[in-house]
Design brief:
The protein has 428 residues and is mainly beta. 4% of the residues lie in helices and 48% in strands. It starts with 22 loop residues before the first strand and ends with a strand. The relative contact order is 0.17.
Length: 428
């Protein structure tokens, strides 16, 4: 699943901090209503986006608490509540238009455990920098150079694949193909969390990160395989930061290898018509891939991002979304240019594709856990997104998003679809 916590990025300041608070608490709530008018399609299947006009509302709330235990040690606890569902029960679009919804199938409000983890930081010098308070970050100073160990229940993008221009569906781009690298089938349960251990080494303008994480026993499942000799996700990432004319930027390269009880698309295609990838599941199957991303500030509140990702696409999609190749690019502009500094506007596009085995499986009538029209006249799925977020107060914002979708679920025989969203966000 997707990440649903609002993450604040670390911003270093030259001066040392004035205080080292021992406790902190944050809250966020997001209500989003999405709708699309009717659109044409030559046919529909069990996992298609509905062609009739429809709407859906979701509510997500999170409480983030943190405590400083001893020198360099911090404990985080993040319970959450969610309710509602996505359009067409969160089916029919690979780069699904709402990062606010889950594939749990139950619209009733549910309280759940999001994160609970211990973070230990070992200072390595390089001068002191300050960190601002945020949902997964205690305010206070630390060495610029540091080794950080994290153990517990987290979301994999807490550790890797976080692009500060596009990583928060609560306030910015909502499509799954924009706030994350879509072909990175990152380890997670249905709600977007896993258990794992990770390490991050920061040295000047360079960082290296990596971790090992639990995989669910079934695709899009809630129960984990705790035997890491049978199933696990491994991801490593390097990052380089810079200043161009005093304006910050960064680039990242990520590689991942997932091992789980996965099915094989080619084997499913050869066994039956229509094929059923579930019937081919076997221990020890793997999915290999990479993701690249970069971001750059341009001054006057303008910033841009780009993402590219790929996986081998031989085995079934296991945890995130059914995309095997993806390129995304976008820009975000603060309202400073028109006298409303706290407002924000953005525009982006993501182009997604499938591997040959995945494509053949869907063409033969196979179903994934997210898409499956019963047939397929293949074409790249193209989703655009524009949004405006109006700051009502420091804590409250309202906004709207528009997303045109060409070839939803990679099918030229369906669409285009047009998704409109109204969103209210509260955070403090």
């Amino acid at each position: 699943m997707m990440v649903v916590a609002c993450l604040w990025s670390t911003r270093a300041r030259a001066e040392p901090p004035d205080a080292q608070p021992r406790f902190d608490i944050h809250f966020q709530a997001t209500v989003a209503t999405q709708a699309h008018p009717g659109f044409s399609a030559a046919y529909s299947g069990p996992h298609s986006l509905k062609t009739d006009a429809e709407s859906a509302t979701s509510v997500v709330m999170d409480v983030f608490t943190a405590a400083r235990l001893w020198r360099g040690a911090e404990l985080y606890f993040n319970p959450g509540m969610s309710g509602g569902r996505g359009l067409s029960s969160t089916l029919g679009v690979a780069a699904f238009p709402s990062g606010e919804v889950y594939r749990v199938g139950d619209p009733d409000p549910t309280i759940f455990l999001g994160r609970v983890f211990l973070r230990q930081t070992f200072g390595l010098g390089g001068g002191r920098v300050a960190r601002e308070s945020g949902p997964t970050q205690l305010a206070g100073g630390r060495d610029r150079d540091a080794l950080t160990i994290t153990i517990g229940r987290i979301s994999t993008p807490d550790v890797v694949d976080s692009n500060p221009v596009s990583s928060d569906p609560h306030t910015r781009f909502m499509s799954w193909g924009l706030w994350a690298s879509a072909a990175f089938d990152y380890p997670a349960d249905t709600r977007g969390y896993t258990w794992g251990a990770s390490a991050a080494l920061d040295l000047g303008d360079w960082s290296a990160r990596g971790g090992i994480f639990l995989e669910p026993k079934e695709a899009n499942g809630m129960d984990f395989e705790w035997d890491v000799t049978r199933a696990r996700g491994i991801a490593v990432e390097g990052e380089r930061r810079w200043k161009l004319g005093g304006r910050g930027g960064a680039a990242r390269a990520l590689a991942f290898l997932n091992t789980a009880h996965m099915g094989d698309y080619d084997l499913a295609f050869a066994m039956a018509t229509p094929p059923d990838v579930i019937a081919t599941r076997e221990n020890g199957r793997t999915k290999l891939g990479f993701a690249l991303s970069a971001n750059q500030e341009f001054g006057s509140g303008l910033s841009a991002f780009v993402r590219a990702s790929w996986n081998d696409g031989k085995t079934e999609t296991w945890t995130f979304t059914e995309i095997d190749r993806s390129v995304a690019i976008g820009v975000v502009q603060s309202g400073a240019r028109w006298g409303r500094e706290a407002d924000e506007a953005g525009a982006a596009v993501v182009i997604s594709g499938l591997s040959s085995p995945h494509r053949g499986y869907l063409q033969a009538g196979g179903l994934g856990f997210l898409i499956g029209d019963g047939a397929l006249r293949y074409g790249p799925e193209i989703l655009g997104e524009i949004y405006y977020r109006l700051a009502v107060t420091k804590e409250i914002s309202v906004g709207g998003n528009y997303q045109p979708i060409l070839n939803p679920a990679f099918n030229r025989d369906r669409g285009p679809a047009h998704v409109f969203t109204g969103r209210v966000h509260i955070a403090f």
